Amino acid sequence: MESMLDATGPVALVVLALVDGTSMGTFVIPLILLVVGEGGARRVAGRTLLYLAVIGLFHLALGVALLAGLLPLIESWGHLLRTPAVMVVLAVIGVGLVIWSFRLEPAAIRKRGGDPEASARRWTQRARAAVGRPRLLVSLALLAGLVEAASMIPYLAAMGIIADMGVGLGTGALILVGYCALMVLPAVVLTGVRAALGNRADRALERVHAWSLKSTARAFSWAIGIIGVIIVINTAGPALAALGVG
After folding, report:
1. For residue 54, what pLDDT is reported?
2. pLDDT, tens digit, for every residue of 185-218?
3. Model pLDDT, residue 7
4. Which residues contact 109 (CB under 8 A, 6 or more apart)?
5. Phi/psi of residue 150, nearest 5 degrees
6. 165 three-class SS
7. Angle 169-197/41-77 helices, nearest 10 degrees?
8. Does residue 84 or residue 82 have the better pLDDT?
9. In 2-105, alpha helices (H)
10. Residue 3 DSSP label
């Protein structure tokens, strides 16, 4: 890659952070905690912030660990990523991700006989069981982080972009702090609204919660598609040149 940063780096990181900010762990579960929490607006907001702090720190620690492993690999083998053959492979992967994103759309899942909202309902039950119990909230945040780590394609893409920037681990960690802060920002804003307005915000939060439950699968589909487009943008030119096209 000529450098992913040159074309899309900072913008792509912002987009991926916001996409990560709409996931089950960073958005839907906090909304559930805000909607069903009891004990006063400030207490509900405080417990939700505890959850967000834990899952944000979990992603940060995981990201630093991944970055610590990626940077030496990029330094030693990064030149191989710029070879024509690898450009072609990456371009094909990018196109494949875009195609896959359409299969992840809720309508496509229903057409195949699946239930795109099944996972969201299971997480809703877990969140309701943890409401008002700080220890369970911490456990819920760690569980959500671990489960989402298995499908954290947007986050892995962000790690690749940061590693490709050529920055050291210290600077990369600072970028990750900003990434994770932006990732939890939407839920933090809604938590602030809940604290400020109290029960008056319940109806609006319930609507946002209902929308988010229906949109979680679509958000993941969009995330996969966006990553595919980013890869294609950065590899299409060299790949076509390698194939003698244009």
Report:
1. 95
2. 999 998 998 888 877 777 777 787 777 766 677 7
3. 45
4. 103, 115, 116, 217
5. -70, -20
6. coil
7. 160
8. 84
9. 4-7, 9-20, 29-36, 41-77, 84-103
10. -
Reduced DSSP (H G I as helix, E B as strand, rest coil) percent helix, strand, coil of the chain, to 5: 85, 0, 15
Q: How many helices (H) and strands (E) does the chain have?
A: 11, 0
Q: Give the residue extent of every domain in the chain.
A: 4-242
* Cα–Cα distance measured from residue 75 to residue 72, given in angstroms and rounded to the nearest whole number: 5
Higher pLDDT, 166 or 139: 139
What separation in angstroms does the CA of 218 have from each of 111, 213, 222, 246? 14, 10, 6, 35
Evaluated on CA atoms 137, 138, 139, 142, the torsion sign reads: positive
pLDDT given at position 3:
43
CA distances from 50 to 39, 55, 167, 184 (A): 15, 9, 31, 12
Element (H, E) at 171: helix 169-197
Kindly give, in sequence order, each residue whose CB lies less than 8 Å from that of residue 205, ignoring residues fewer than 6 positions away.
Answer: 31, 34, 35, 190, 193, 194
Verdict on whether the full-model pTM lies above 0.70: yes
Q: Is 132 left (phi over 0), alpha (psi -120 to 50) or beta?
A: left
Tell me 82's DSSP state. G
Q: Token pair for residue 149?
A: 């780590």
Q: Which amino acid is at 97?
A: L
Distance of CA 201 to the CA centre of its chain: 26
- Max CA pair span of the chain: 67
pLDDT at 50 over 90: yes
- The tokens for 4 are 């992913």
Residue 2: its pLDDT value, please? 42
